[in-house]
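Figure 6 in text form: structure in, sequence out.
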């Protein structure tokens, strides 16, 4: 009996230990998931770090950073394509990691690994850890792997996402420090690229929305604040008018531009106005004081990095060049870098995700219909994944055109919901994320190359996630779509480059044998650039100036030769004496090698006067791919 008693006691103790272990695991699971997701992202992203390139982009980043490292100042000494903060950051990357393109990419890799858990923390607010993980991994797949270059747009996306996370913390706690932190993110984004303004605008809309929902006269006040509603309407209308003016600056008024660029922002502004008219209650003065305080706190955070940056330029007496470079020169992009949005007919493909989500609205009482609907959804997902490469653009465009639908749906949901739930934090978060996605989608203007969708795709996915959280019956259909788009991304989208299908781009399976770039590129690019760099090294002394034009900053950077001009892309230089100055360099024998780009991406072909001077001064020449290399000294055979 004693032995049996001990056995029973041992079994009970073992069972207790198992229960305790399961309890510990269950309690730890939510904290382990973001770590696991980040590790998965890290392992997945490593092979992309040195894969593929767009040469002129890499050359722009590399040459700008090197010139800063050598003591030059963006905008004062050379035409920085962006605000200038990116070049300062990359100069430090070169200082600590070496003057190589891979150094910039490893910094991007590290920043992405900070971005991943922040995305998870946002998604986990309204879903289980498993669903939040699935959303986060989709955000990864649809972003950086498609173009693993250290472009400022990636960093602006990261900072906007961090800013959203800080604003959500403000929503939870009401503490102003989170507002200030969000403002810091906006200010830092501005220093990288002017499109950081889009996040700041979204944050201001969020503060107006948040304040319009607050009862400024006490609990359940019946007094409408028509004055504050009018102020909010003015804010929303002003922003919508600014977006219309921005897009109209290029003369775009076609249906596609209206749907992709104006509808999302317009829907958000309309939601702000209509919700404020329905819900704003209490004292106008109390609302105005509170809104002024929160806006001042946010803009105070924005001001800190921006003022430090301006003081740096004031100290160098370079404020005018900064203004020219950041405000004036970008207007030239409207003339030279205009890439249109997808054809209007592609918007029909939005019916794919929309119909799948609408299928989730089947009433729960109709169990058989629910089962059949779910089975059809799973079948559609499976077939589309199986035939994914054949249906590449159909799936791609079906997601790219989804933001206008989501923005309109969110507008309708926020307006339709009765005001009794206006303090619901999820509604505020839904507005914030949708507003950020809608305004940040303007990054496609005026250059709407496919990869520019990837710069805001994570924000779109988060907006859909929060919309689904407001309508729980959509969850199964949403999971099906995440499987579809995630599987498509891994199996097809990420196998290409710059969001072109893998069967449309040359395989990036040849490593460049150049000191400043050991990236995996196509066989043709490897052959051409290694040949060009060798010719330049053979016919010009180290660190000597050469001339590479138009639009080929990568030539200067890869060959370790100086750019004697202040330009990266030729169309930015509108000086009347520019051609005369370049011709003088050639005739006075200050340049021994010239490289002519026969297929510039942005600028017009080489000026005839300059080409004539090159022929006269540098008689030896050979064509290498899309470039002509000309040099002064005889070829060493």
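Output sequence:
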């Amino acid at each position: 009996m004693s032995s049996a008693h001990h056995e029973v006691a041992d079994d009970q103790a073992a069972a207790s230990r198992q229960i305790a272990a399961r309890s510990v695991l269950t309690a730890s699971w939510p904290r382990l998931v973001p770590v696991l997701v980040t590790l998965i992202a890290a392992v997945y992203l490593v092979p992309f770090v040195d894969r593929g390139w767009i040469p002129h982009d890499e050359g722009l980043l590399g040459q700008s950073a090197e010139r800063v490292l050598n003591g030059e100042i963006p905008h004062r000494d050379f035409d920085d394509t962006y605000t200038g903060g990116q070049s300062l950051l990359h100069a430090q990357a070169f200082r600590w990691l070496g003057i190589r393109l891979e150094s910039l990419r490893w910094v991007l890799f590290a920043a992405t690994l900070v971005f991943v858990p922040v995305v998870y923390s946002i998604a986990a607010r309204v879903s289980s850890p498993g669903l939040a993980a699935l959303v986060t991994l989709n955000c990864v797949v649809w972003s950086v792997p498609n173009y693993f270059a250290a472009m400022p747009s990636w960093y602006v996306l990261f900072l906007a996402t961090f800013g959203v996370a800080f604003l959500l913390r403000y929503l939870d706690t009401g503490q102003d420090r989170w507002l200030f932190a969000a403002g810091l993110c906006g200010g830092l984004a501005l220093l990288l690229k002017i499109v950081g303004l889009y996040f700041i605008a979204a944050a201001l809309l969020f503060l107006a929305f948040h304040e319009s929902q607050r009862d400024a006269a006490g609990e359940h006040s019946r007094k409408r604040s028509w004055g504050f509603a009018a102020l909010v309407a003015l804010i929303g209308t002003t922003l919508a008018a600014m977006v219309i003016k921005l897009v109209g600056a290029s003369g775009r008024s076609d249906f596609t531009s209206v749907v992709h660029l104006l509808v999302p922002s317009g829907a958000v502004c309309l939601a702000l106005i209509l919700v404020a008219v329905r819900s704003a209650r209490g004292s106008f003065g109390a609302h105005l004081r509170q809104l002024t305080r929160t806006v001042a706190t946010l803009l105070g955070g924005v001001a800190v990095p921006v003022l430090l940056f301006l003081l740096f330029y004031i100290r160098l007496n370079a404020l005018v060049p900064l203004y020219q470079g950041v405000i004036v020169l970008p207007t030239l992009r409207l003339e030279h870098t205009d890439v249109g949005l997808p054809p209007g007919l592609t918007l029909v493909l939005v019916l794919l995700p929309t119909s799948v989500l609408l299928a989730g609205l089947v009433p729960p009482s109709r169990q058989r219909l629910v089962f059949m609907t779910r089975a059809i959804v799973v079948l559609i997902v499976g077939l589309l994944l199986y035939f994914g490469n054949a249906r590449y653009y159909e799936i791609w465009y079906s997601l790219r055109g989804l933001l206008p639908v989501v923005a309109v749906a969110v507008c309708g949901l926020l307006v339709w919901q009765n005001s009794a739930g206006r303090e619901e934090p999820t509604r505020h978060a839904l507005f914030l994320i949708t507003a950020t996605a809608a305004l940040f989608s303007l990054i496609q203007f005026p250059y709407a190359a496919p990869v520019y969708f990837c710069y805001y795709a994570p924000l779109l996915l988060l907006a859909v996630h929060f919309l689904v959280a407001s309508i729980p019956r959509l969850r199964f259909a949403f999971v099906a779509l995440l499987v579809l788009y995630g599987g498509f991304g891994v199996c097809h989208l990420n196998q290409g480059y710059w969001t072109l299908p893998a069967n449309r781009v040359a395989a990036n399976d040849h490593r460049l044998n150049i000191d400043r770039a050991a990236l995996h590129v196509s066989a043709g690019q490897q052959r051409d650039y290694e040949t060009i760099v060798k010719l330049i090294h053979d016919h010009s002394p180290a660190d000597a100036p050469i001339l590479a034009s138009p639009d080929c900053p990568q030539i200067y950077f890869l060959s370790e030769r100086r750019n004697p001009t202040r330009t990266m892309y030729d169309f930015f230089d509108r000086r009347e004496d520019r051609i005369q100055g370049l011709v003088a360099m050639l005739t006075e024998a200050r340049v021994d090698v010239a490289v002519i780009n026969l297929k510039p991406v942005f600028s017009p072909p080489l000026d005839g006067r300059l080409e004539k001077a090159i022929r006269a001064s540098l008689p030896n020449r050979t064509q290498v791919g899309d470039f002509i290399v000309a040099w002064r000294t005889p070829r060493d055979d």
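Caption detail: The chain has 25 helices and six strands.
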